[in-house]
Specification:
Blueprint: H1 19-23, E1 38-39, H2 44-49, E2 55-56, E3 60-65, H3 74-86, E4 91-95, H4 103-108, E5 118-119, H5 124-137, E6 140-146, H6 152-165, E7 169-174, E8 186-193, E9 196-203, E10 211-215
Parallel strand pairs: 3-7, 3-8, 4-5, 4-6, 6-7
Antiparallel strand pairs: 1-2, 8-9, 9-10
Helix pairs in contact: 5-6
């Protein structure tokens, strides 16, 4: 009588113990496909709407804004403040803001303005390149970038920079850009409704199409509004002294960009 052969069991290969390293490269266990590192928005209603409960921590999030100045930047301020508080030695770069920023208003939101360097480039390509260099430095825990003219290639560079630096990059664009293809992990359309802001998930890693009505972060007081003809509307440094008395945010934290 033949003896029964032992049944061979399939060997399970284990992944490295430090899962954060290979997760940054997009590798995950099958059981963890729906999980992702997130950054809380500081708005509980919005966190319930977003897949995973917040913004993707190592990716690009696009805010597609119908009307500028209706609270879209205020929506992000508490989140930025929490990032700075959690990483005391790091900074968040503000790249190409469309209007001069009001330093006292930012400080009133709990933001350490000494850790919010302003970066202005001659064009979108220079700004993207600057973000890539700063992301490689390891001293930043996030970036906020304003641009309506980003190409798909530029957005891919930002996405790679966010993944490599393991920090979020938030991009503000006009709602008209919603019809363009984008590699961003999350795209949120912000429009104005009867009860406040309406936020719609246009793209995410998971089911999209969810909506949130009535969020009211308030008007964007961090801006200093000036006539469109004023040169200060084209950059912060020109009239930086008008933002606060001591000029703590008056000058860029970086020298002019060198040729690439």
């Amino acid at each position: 009588m033949r003896s029964a052969r032992p049944i061979k069991t399939q060997r399970r290969h284990s992944l490295p113990g430090d899962t954060s390293q290979w997760q940054r490269l997009g590798l995950r266990r099958a059981s963890q496909q729906a999980r992702q590192s997130i950054v809380g928005s500081s708005w509980s209603a919005l966190d319930r709407l977003l897949p995973g409960g917040g913004y993707p921590a190592h990716a690009v999030t696009e805010f597609l804004v119908e009307t500028a100045g209706t609270g879209e930047f205020s929506l992000l301020l508490t989140c930025l403040g929490q990032r700075l508080s959690a990483h005391p030695d790091s900074r968040i770069g503000l790249v190409a803001p469309p209007r001069p920023l009001n330093a006292p208003a930012l400080a009133a939101q709990g933001l350490d303005i000494r850790r919010l360097p302003l970066i202005a480039g001659g064009n979108d390509g220079e700004c993207v390149w600057a973000i890539e260099q700063m992301a490689r430095s390891g001293g930043f825990v996030g970036f906020v970038f304003w641009s309506d003219g980003l190409t798909n290639t530029a957005l891919r560079k930002l996405q790679l920079a966010a993944e490599n630096a393991a920090c979020p990059i938030f991009v503000y664009r006009d709602l008209a850009c919603a019809g363009q293809r984008s590699p961003a992990a999350l795209r949120l359309a912000i429009t104005r409704g009867d009860r406040g802001q309406r936020i719609e998930v246009r793209k995410c890693r998971g089911p999209a199409g969810a909506r949130l009505d009535g969020l009211q972060p308030g008007p964007d007081r961090p801006w200093i509004f000036m006539p469109e003809s004023s040169p200060a509307t084209r950059g912060f440094e020109t009239h930086a002294e008008a933002c606060n008395d001591d000029g703590t945010v008056a000058r860029s934290a970086f020298p002019p960009l060198a040729p690439r």
